[in-house]
Amino acid sequence: MTSVSAEVLSELEALETPTLSDALDRLGIPGQCRGIMPLDRGFRMAGPAFTVKYADEYVEGGGVGDFVDDIAAGEVAVIANHGRLDVTVWGDLMTILARRNRVAGTVIDGVCRDLRRALELDYPLFARGHWMRTGKDRVRFEAVGVPVRIGGVLVHPGDVLVGDANGVVAVPADRVADVLEAARSIEDAEERIRAALAGGRSLREARRETGYHHLQTKDR
Question: What is the pTM of this model?
Answer without folding.
Answer: 0.90
